[in-house]
């Protein structure tokens, strides 16, 4: 279902009726911000409001879901019924997809907040130990990087596709060509975020280190170790995402060949 097309059609019909966004919103008991989201293609109208919206725009629900007007001569009754069924199936699929994204978004936000909380707890509870193999596992740095990444992916609506990428490669779950392409894009975003956050965290660490000029000999070794680990974690995660991306591309090629 083409959200952009439907949004433009809603805007076209509203203007044709001589209504402002606020006037249309008042007629169907929503806010003008909701109308704006529909018209820009950022959101679809809820199923419960489709009939009211169609009546306000003086079209039928089938035209609304298709994002275009139908003339009575254009289709036979059988063809019109078939289009209605197709639009209904698409709507149900879109609602299911939106529900999955909402659930994934909630999971992503929870993971992000949990990681940051663990980072803060570990930072307060302990300090970086020197002279041990376990020094490479600096939990506050690792949790900060992971937590912020999950929060950003959830905020910008890519967490569902990010999880799908792992399902495709690890669990071997079958996906459509479009879903695979979206998963590839999500992995690219995750990789870019990892590099950006790694550099940002390290830069903040270097800046903080410069404030300890009077105690440089006492803090320089642990601080530099922690800063270096930000780059190490970013490099490791980016390598994983590159491998994941190649794997998804391979799955995509197999899907295209089957079709």
From TrEMBL:
PROSITE patterns: HTH_CROC1. GO terms for molecular function: DNA binding. InterPro entries: Cro/C1-type_HTH, Lambda_DNA-bd_dom_sf. Keywords: DNA-binding, Membrane, Transmembrane, Transmembrane helix. It comes from the Bacteria. SUPFAM superfamilies: lambda repressor-like DNA-binding domains. Residues 10-64 form the HTH cro/C1-type domain. The keyword NAD does not apply. The chain crosses the membrane at residues 104-121, 141-159, 189-212, 224-248. This is Helix-turn-helix transcriptional regulator. The lineage of its organism: Bacteria, Bacillati, Bacillota, Clostridia, Lachnospirales.
